[in-house]
């Protein structure tokens, strides 16, 4: 069937931020041939591929081109042996429902990624991660469509270039591919991952099952406003707005000096090779921003200092003004350049 195009479609309701203008053209792809067709028919236009809209900030001007919403559905499970199951999901599958399905089948490997909003196709783009797990640990390969040539190919895990919130898809090969399907290798009856502090505290010495861990992760997320489905202004966000900066030991020393604290008290995660990831939320708070800080109709979440939120009717420019205020403060105070996690769409 021919793909249907609509004109001047509001994008704000299709994003978790709930801000931004219209798409000049909009189409929803329910199968792979829709996706192929969209690229063939719109060679003269800018095309933005939209998943669940949970990692984007759309400009108030909207997007002057075609927004192609991915809505392809399908899951397949293939048990290789008693211990291993390969799962392939279409890009348009809801990520959290996918996790629920895997946990329900007693498949370990994605349980800590419960409650992350968005679609399966969005997960390899920034190598989503949470509570001690990253999607790169279980992805076997990503099937992609080359936007320019129309060729379909398989990108192996090794070729995805996965790092902290990074892959070739948001790095060296940004905007080259559309993710069509993602294949995972999960462990049948495997133990849940309990490495993150909050999860260790929840379970103590007890060994929980996968669904208990899924529920605990969702509860922890809800307490931080990190579950979109809970509703309310604190969850009108794109999750963490800034990546946690990575600094060397000189960076740690500088932070400690500025704050006049012992270097050992600066929280960090050892990344190896003398590099440390420092929580951006901690730095933001130390730079004087409190949870709930407001700038117009944009604000820092009342539950999590790393989430910028739309407090109701905010324009994208107000979110950008808050982002810049925080970046300037962190830059001046700690000489650290924060990098934003969400994709800014339709800005110059
Ligand atoms: C409350 C909240 C909590 C969050 N918590 C976390 C977290 O714990 N960990 C984490 O890593 N992230 C988190 N996020 C960010 C976000 O949910 C993830 O990055 C998610 O994977 C984005 O998927 P999406 O389908 O919504 O992508 P979108 O927001 O629609 O798109 C994001 C980017 O990916 C591209 N893209 C999407 N789908 C495809 C595709 N099929 N092919 C090619 N490109 C595509 C888009 O073009 C865009 O550049 C959170 C967001 C919110 C709102």
Give a concise summary.
The protein has seven helices and 20 strands.
Task: Let me know the largest β-sheet.
Answer: 6 strands, antiparallel
Work out the helix count.
7
Assign an overall shape: globular
Q: Terminal Cα separation, in Å?
A: 35 Å
Radius of gyration: 21 Å
CATH topology group of the largest domain: Uridine Diphospho-n-acetylenolpyruvylglucosamine Reductase, domain 3
- Overall tally of domains: 3
Low-confidence stretches: none
User: Could you give the order of the helices and strands?
Assistant: EEHEEEEEHEEEEEEHHEHEEHEEEHE
- What is the CATH class name of the largest domain? Alpha Beta
Task: List cofactors, ions and other ligands.
Answer: flavin-adenine dinucleotide
Structural class: alpha+beta
Mean of pLDDT: 96
CATH second-level architecture of the largest domain: 2-Layer Sandwich
Number of strands: 20
